[in-house]
């Protein structure tokens, strides 16, 4: 600021005003020194007024300008934010400089250093900075607080916790004591959203205060919660599942406000507290996309959708410590993921379990990560519920005005420890002493209302007794409570989606040839007027010639036919992943780009006049948040085909938490069904330790209770049917496909159109196309290794060995495998051959299942033998010669001589 001060000091007020007006007209026309200063000050040179002084304080000196800048930048450091009064923040020197205008300094302190503070100077937009200056300096909120509204929210919040502490004293509930103002904030947001006739609010939050929010914001019956405390089932007995602890569960309700209904959903989440963040956003985007004109080009989609709002509640330690928080924030303004802004509410306990802030994050505040996306940050003292109400209102208005994220940091405390059975004094004795002598926020607020003659002790006490009586009646009725399944569903799901058809029923997923040809024409035609890359143009032309000649189609073509026909059938298609529009291996080219203008076209999105939306999105370099987002999207629109593709299969390691906690177990824990598809490129082709393996062994280990469909497919037609089966089957199950790399262009990995025509479907087991009934040895395999085995069998002209492919590994196709094995009456030997090391791949998953099939058939051979790489610590070698030797050795061992 030094140069700025010198520049301004040398100018009189008239000159400064004229220069400022010139800057407003065209910032490029004035000296950069002044331009930089005006950029920080905003559109007004007199942005503060005070009623006490009775006049407008004009910024007529460099000293005043510097003071104003200092308070906007650092006033939050000395704000009254800690209810316990333990924070010792030294005052920055530039907030109290020598010779400062005392009236201006007092006004700025009132604006920025009270129980509500704001960080906004990191925002680059002058319009957005002016928005905050206007609200904190020029037009501070002077409207009376809704005292009754706030008092009732605090009474409900504290009343619930006090009742639970009395009735369930030795049980964990992760109560909200010390942070009851969260209910004030959430109810304020709900009322504003209802006034704007929003359609839904989706909430994600951790343990702390979750039961309270369920009860007092989403109106989950008290009887249901108390029944769960007593050990009752969270679901009807006629719906299977393992269930989950009560403070992980979700709930949903519809609330009526003056005839307008708004759907509230609290999504279930595991103990990986922040993992729910992207899931919530994906859930919201699904709602928003269903309300968007499907003919709008994806780059023209509005960034605003006020009808569906996301609220994420965080713990302070988790917000600063969990990487998925940044990954989720980073999605906020990306075309394929934006939801019009998210409201982030932090329950800032000022402690992370037992870890103090000094050991919890690097930087100034735990909220600093939000500055990376230029989100404003409001800090508010949780013991000032009126300030919390104002902060929630500002947060809602910001999101409505700018369709971007905002953080509301509610600084509070935990009255008890990490949970109610914990002893926090072991590690934080000073904080615990301050908490034990401090009245609750409800008590403090009630006393202030009495002092201001806004209420009476008698009415406050009566309000408390009424709340406790309601809870007592619910407690008495809890043993007889019978839950309604809809209480745990965030959308009105069709109950049949919770019931799976018998696995032996494979629905017909073929398509009439005329519709296949219509889709094929779209993917083999260059849009009119487009100048696309010459190599790609030749590829598209060759595809058209292949279709015209009736020749078989490759993997990418059959995938495109599945996407296109589903879209024409009325089912939206969404594919996202790192470089998925082109495809990691340059195989897909779903979006064409004009080489001269940059214009984009998605040919498959323009096949028919009334087809459903079809979008391909290049994701950021994220797996955790993006997979969570797509999982949430699949929950929000079960009629859409939602696909996430890893750049390489091993990249799914970065999203293992989502795979473990949501994709594999969401149905059995929470009754949430998802049809999400994961495409994981896989195959040992000399690509080194990482990019060879999608770690199928890890995914197969998660398989139980018919929770997943796991496939390693070897023909394009079967892949086509697997994708269409996701929609054709009545139930919804996640599908994991280990997709090929070299097979994308393998001359034998092709399928004719007839294999996708009427009366065709997915085949979980593929017979040997060169069937010979006198074969004595059968090799069972899955995926790419089949083609290596086939080549070796041809080379040595072995007629005694048959190759049977397991296209689906889970649910294990026992019946279909029996049918194929029965075709070989002279069978003497069964081999399982894989290219993965023995401790990887499918071997340890299929060996006993194959054994059961052989035993049930009473065949001469009872167990399969293993042929493949020996067990290794690394999934693949990085040495090309060693890889080739290993691959040759395993296929030669499996096939044997002629």
TrEMBL record:
Q: Name one GO biological process term.
A: tricarboxylic acid cycle
Q: What does the entry list under GO cellular component? A: cytosol; oxoglutarate dehydrogenase complex
Cofactor(s), names only, from the UniProt record: thiamine diphosphate
Gene Ontology MF annotations: oxoglutarate dehydrogenase (succinyl-transferring) activity; thiamine pyrophosphate binding
Q: Where is this region: Disordered?
A: 481-500
Concerning SUPFAM superfamilies, the annotation shows:
Thiamin diphosphate-binding fold (THDP-binding)
Q: Which InterPro entries does this one have? A: 2oxoglutarate_DH_E1, DH_E1, KGD_C_sf, ODO-1/KGD_C, THDP-binding, Transketolase-like_Pyr-bd
A Pfam family annotated for this UniProt entry: Transket_pyr
Recite the UniProt keywords alphabetically: Oxidoreductase, Thiamine pyrophosphate
Q: What class of enzyme is it?
A: oxidoreductase
| Subunit annotation | Homodimer. Part of the 2-oxoglutarate dehydrogenase (OGDH) complex composed of E1 (2-oxoglutarate dehydrogenase), E2 (dihydrolipoamide succinyltransferase) and E3 (dihydrolipoamide dehydrogenase); the complex contains multiple copies of the three enzymatic components (E1, E2 and E3).
NCBIfam families linked to this entry: 2oxo_dh_E1 (TIGR00239), PRK09404.1 (NF006914), PRK12270.1 (NF008907)
User: What is the purpose of this protein?
Assistant: E1 component of the 2-oxoglutarate dehydrogenase (OGDH) complex which catalyzes the decarboxylation of 2-oxoglutarate, the first step in the conversion of 2-oxoglutarate to succinyl-CoA and CO(2).
The protein in question is named 2-oxoglutarate dehydrogenase E1 component
């Amino acid at each position: 600021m030094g140069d700025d001060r010198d520049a301004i000091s040398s100018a009189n007020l008239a000159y400064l005003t004229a220069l400022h007006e010139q800057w407003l007209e065209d910032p490029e026309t004035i000296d950069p020194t002044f331009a930089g200063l005006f950029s920080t000050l905003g559109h007004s040179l007199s942005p503060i007024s005070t009623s006490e002084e009775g006049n407008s304080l004009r910024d007529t000196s460099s000293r005043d300008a510097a003071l104003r800048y200092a308070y906007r930048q650092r006033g939050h450091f000395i704000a009254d934010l800690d209810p316990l009064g333990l924070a010792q923040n030294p005052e920055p020197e530039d907030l109290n400089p020598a010779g400062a205008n005392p009236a201006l300094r007092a006004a700025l302190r009132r604006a920025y250093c009270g129980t509500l503070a704001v960080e906004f100077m990191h925002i680059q937009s002058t319009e957005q900075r002016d928005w905050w200056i206007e609200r904190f300096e020029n037009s501070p909120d002077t409207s009376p607080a809704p005292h009754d509204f706030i008092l009732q929210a605090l009474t409900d919040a504290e009343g619930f916790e006090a009742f639970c502490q009395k009735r369930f004293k030795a049980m964990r509930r992760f109560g909200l004591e010390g942070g009851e103002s969260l209910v004030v904030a959430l109810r304020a947001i709900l009322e504003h959203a209802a006034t704007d006739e929003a359609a839904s609010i989706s909430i994600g939050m951790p343990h702390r205060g979750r039961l309270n929010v369920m009860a007092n914001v989403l109106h989950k019956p008290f009887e249901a919660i108390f029944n769960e405390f007593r050990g009752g089932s969270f679901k009807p007995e006629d719906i299977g599942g393992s269930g989950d602890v009560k403070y992980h569960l979700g709930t949903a309700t519809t609330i009526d406000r003056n005839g307008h209904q708004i759907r509230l959903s609290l999504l279930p989440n595991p103990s990986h507290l922040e993992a729910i963040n992207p899931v919530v956003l994906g859930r919201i985007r699904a709602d928003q996309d269903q309300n968007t004109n499907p003919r709008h080009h994806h780059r023209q989609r509005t960034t605003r959708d006020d009808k569906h709002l996301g609220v994420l509640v965080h713990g302070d330690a988790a917000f600063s410590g969990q990487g998925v928080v940044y990954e989720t924030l980073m999605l906020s303004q990306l075309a394929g993921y934006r939801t019009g802004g998210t409201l982030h509410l932090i329950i800032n306990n000022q402690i992370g379990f037992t870890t103090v802030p000094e050991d919890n994050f690097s930087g100034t505040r735990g909220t600093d990560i939000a500055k990376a996306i230029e989100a404003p940050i409001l800090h508010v003292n949780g013991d000032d519920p009126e300030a919390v109400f104002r902060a929630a209102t500002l947060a809602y208005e910001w999101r409505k005005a700018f369709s971007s994220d905002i953080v509301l940091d509610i600084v509070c405390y935990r009255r008890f420890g990490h949970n109610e059975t914990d002893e926090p004094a072991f590690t934080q004795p000073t904080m615990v002493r301050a908490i034990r002598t401090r009245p609750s926020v409800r008590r403090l607020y009630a006393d202030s209302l009495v002092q201001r003659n806004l209420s009476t002790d008698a009415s406050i006490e009566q309000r408390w007794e009424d709340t406790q009586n309601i809870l007592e009646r619910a407690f008495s009725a809890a043993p007889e409570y019978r839950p309604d399944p809809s209480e745990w569903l965030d959308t009105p799901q069709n109950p049949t989606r919770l019931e799976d058809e018998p696995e032996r029923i494979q629905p017909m997923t073929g398509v009439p040839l005329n519709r296949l040809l219509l889709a094929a024409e779209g993917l083999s035609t260059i849009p009119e007027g487009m100048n696309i890359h010459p190599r790609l143009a030749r590829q598209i032309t060759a595809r058209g010639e292949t279709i015209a000649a009736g020749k078989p189609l490759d993997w990418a073509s059959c995938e495109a036919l599945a996407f296109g026909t589903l879209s024409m059938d009325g089912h939206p298609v969404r594919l996202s992943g790192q470089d998925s529009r082109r495809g990691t291996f340059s195989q897909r080219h779903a979006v064409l780009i004009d080489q001269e203008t940059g214009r984009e076209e998605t040919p498959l999105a323009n096949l028919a006049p009334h087809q459903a939306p079809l979008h391909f999105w290049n994701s950021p370099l994220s797996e955790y948040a993006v997979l969570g987002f797509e999982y949430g999207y699949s929950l929000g629109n079960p009629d859409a085909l939602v696909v996430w593709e890893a750049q390489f299969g091993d990249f799914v390691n970065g999203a293992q938490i989502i795979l473990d906690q949501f994709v594999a177990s969401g149905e059995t824990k929470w009754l949430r069904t998802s049809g999400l598809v994961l495409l994981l490129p896989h195959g040992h082709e000399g690509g080194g330790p990482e990019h060879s393996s999608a770690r199928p062994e890890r995914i197969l280990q998660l398989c139980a209770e018919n929770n997943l469909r796991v496939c390693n497919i070897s023909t394009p037609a079967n892949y086509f049917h697997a994708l269409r089966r996701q929609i054709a089957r009545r139930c919804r199950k996640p599908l994991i496909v280990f997709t090929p790399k070299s097979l994308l262009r393998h001359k034998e990995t092709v399928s004719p159109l007839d294999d996708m025509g009427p009366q065709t479907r997915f085949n979980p087991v593929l017979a040997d196309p060169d069937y010979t009934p006198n074969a004595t040895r059968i090799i069972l395999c899955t995926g790419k290794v089949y083609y290596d085995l086939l080549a070796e069998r041809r080379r040595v002209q072995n007629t005694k060995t048959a190759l049977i492919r397991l296209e689906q590994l889970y649910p294990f196709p026992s019946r279909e495998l029996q049918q194929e094995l029965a075709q070989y009456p002279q069978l003497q030997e069964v081999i399982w051959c894989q290219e993965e090391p023995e401790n990887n791949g499918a071997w340890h998953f299929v060996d006993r299942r194959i054994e059961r099939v052989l035993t049930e058939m009473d065949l001469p051979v009872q167990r399969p033998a293993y042929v493949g790489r020996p067990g290794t610590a690394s999934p693949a070698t990085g040495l090309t010669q060693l890889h080739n030797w290993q691959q040759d050795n395993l296929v030669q061992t499996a096939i044997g001589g002629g």
